[in-house]
Amino acid sequence: MSNIMKINIGPQHPSTHGVLRLITELDGEEIISIEPVVGYLHRGLEKLAENRSYLQYLPMVDRIDYLGGFFTSYAYCNCVEHLLNCVVPKRAEYIRVLCMELNRIASHLLWLGTFMLDLGASSPLFYCFRDREIILSLFEELTGQRMMYNYFVFGGVRFDVTNEWLNKVSDFIVKFPQCISDYEKIITKNPIFTDRTVNKGILSKNVALQYSVTGPNLRASGMDLDFRKSNPYSVYDKLDFVPAVNHLCDSYGRYLVRIAEMKSSVDIVKQVVRYLKENNGDISANIKAINLKVQEGEYTSYVESSRGLLCCYLRADGSGKPYRVKWRTGSYYAVQVLPQIAKNVNYNDLIAIFGSLDVIMPEVDK
Amino acid sequence: MFDTSILCDKFCVDIMENKIVVRDNFIEVIEFLKNTPEYSFDVLSSIVAVDLVDKIELIYQLYSTQTQQMCQVSYYCENFIAQSIVSVYKSAYFEECEIFDMFGVKFENNNNLKRLYMPESWIGHPMLKSYKLNDERLAWNE
Lengths: 366, 142
Known about the structure:
The complex is a heterodimer. Chain A is α+β, with helices and mostly antiparallel strands. Chain A has 14 helices and 8 strands. In chain A, strand 6 and strand 7 form a beta hairpin. Chain B has a 5-stranded mixed beta sheet with strand order 1-2-5-4-3, covered by helices on one side. In chain B, strands 6-7 form a two-stranded parallel ribbon.
């Protein structure tokens, strides 16, 4: 008699960080196969672009990755600026990098908190949200919004940063390394945590490359690929930082990479704040965004977002609306690789492995 | 653009400003770009489909982790039929399902092609330029 049992997980499951459905086949408690079903959060963001002007589409792109709105904004603005042959002032680029790096820290903090919650530890969530709150308040002061910023505009940024605000950022990054070591004291050597992550969810370098996994998940598999270093965009070539890499290939390695990445983001923020305090300048190239017409052409921008490589493909046909917009996001590929790395594992490890990949569903469904 | 002379010697391709346009032997070109040590485009970044009204343009964006170069391979598909590259890059599976869902392009040799985002019963392919918006037939749950 066959003992194969089919179990449906989701779409409304608290640990799927959105609405993901996994159709799993189990033999006892061992997973034989997984079939991810996506599309529950599909909002047609690519189609919506084709019926809106370039400016009207700008506030929407923040919604693609709601934990990393600055990355998607940057990717879209970068495409439009490239097609307009517009040079972004240096100060604006530094402000953008500052926002993106703080956003990366906030995003990793939310990941850390919810990942620990998936594993049954509820207190790290409060620590992480406490520190993330400081970043969100900084963003609110700068942009007026806590999550959907709509702060980057074509040719620069909407508002300049003040010295007072920069001082607050400096205060935060002075205190934050201590917070990271606090998390590490609770988590890194905790046997309850290591039992559920060490040697669980092995993602080898070859499989990761075959499935186009990028970002921290790939760097935890021993591949030193960080687009901020390998193909520098914005002003990353002028900044000094070390991308986090390790060779553990498991859930624990992915945790270590994200912790190290928060530390390297702090280094970048320090350098950027110093630059912004010492140099003044324009914050926007003053492009008239209303009735903006973009000449015919196509361009793909790429950004190392907190969840991997983020690409925005834009094709313009000379009219006031984009002809085609396509988003390539990191989570899309992380969902696809899940059946490979969660094969033949115990059912109760599935959520731990999935949590370690840092998938958010709006980015997959677009 | 990187040095394409080795590719041009072997295959008949058009080199544009920022992409390589392939007319035939598409799978062979993709395999060649992946497996030739000079190129070694080992990561498929994404597949972009663009509806040009009379045909669909498929743009394959590749990345090489060894040379840090990017490459765009373009292929025009006329009868909504294209060849699957799942055997070359496994990550192409979701992309091909998405393009089938949104544009109606059928990929030969992709054994499990199905709609990725829209329900199976959905009528039409939403990303086509000819798709009618606010179609009454598509009122949800009717």
